[in-house]
User: Which sequence fits this backbone?
């Protein structure tokens, strides 16, 4: 294993020798060398390469071919890196900002596999907001690894399956309402800050928010 890793690093270093240290291609390779301790940086760069199709300018027809041949990362691993970084960028920008500011911190960042579990929990519409918040805390704050986070997620899913049909129906409705409420509040804040729409629309949004909060409150007491 160590020999294989050494060969991979040597291969990357040979490629770096003929590139400008200021180029994106060089920086991606540099991040690949530090992959084990800096996956977020590599994920960010790979996301840029994938999004802008930069690999085609470097002579690769497919992204998988580029990651496998140039930086020695399998396509499946690269895909998880992309998904994990993209998820953090969209849902946890403050966490990414903190990670960059605390780059020299001794506290390790969650693995990309653990973030991938968190992403799947977020995408599962049957996971209640409270349950997602618990998994989020486990991964981002407590530093649980992917195996532990997956165990927690599996237990939550099984618990939901063990509920009777009416409880499942009620829980799903409440989860959808809470997700919609969160989205609506976010949109209202954006409208208010940007002032792109009339104030009366913000007021209507406030009314709708109050109605939904009342509905959630009632369902919680039933």
Assistant:
């Amino acid at each position: 294993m160590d020999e294989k890793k050494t060969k991979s690093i040597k291969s990357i270093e040979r490629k770096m020798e003929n590139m400008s240290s200021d180029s994106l291609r060089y920086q991606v390779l540099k991040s690949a060398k530090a992959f084990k301790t800096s996956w977020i940086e590599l994920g960010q760069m790979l996301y840029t390469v994938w999004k802008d199709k930069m690999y085609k300018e470097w002579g690769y027809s497919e992204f998988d071919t580029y990651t496998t041949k140039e930086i020695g990362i399998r396509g499946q691993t690269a895909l998880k890196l992309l998904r994990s970084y993209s998820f953090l960028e969209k849902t946890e920008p403050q966490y990414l900002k903190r990670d960059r500011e605390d780059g020299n911190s001794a506290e390790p960042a969650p693995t990309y596999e653990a973030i991938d579990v968190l992403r799947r929990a977020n995408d599962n519409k049957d996971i209640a907001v409270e349950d997602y918040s618990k998994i989020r805390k486990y991964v981002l704050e407590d530093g649980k690894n992917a195996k532990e986070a997956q165990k927690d997620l599996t237990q939550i899913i099984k618990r939901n399956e063990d509920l009777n049909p009416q409880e499942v129906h009620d829980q799903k409705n409440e989860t959808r309402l809470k997700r919609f409420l969160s989205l609506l509040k976010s949109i209202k804040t954006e409208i208010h800050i940007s002032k792109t729409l009339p104030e009366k629309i913000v007021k209507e949004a406030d009314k709708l928010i109050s109605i939904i909060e009342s509905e959630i409150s009632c369902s919680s007491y039933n």
User: Anything to note?
Assistant: Residues 50 and 178 are 33 Å apart (CA to CA). The chain has a mean pLDDT of 81.
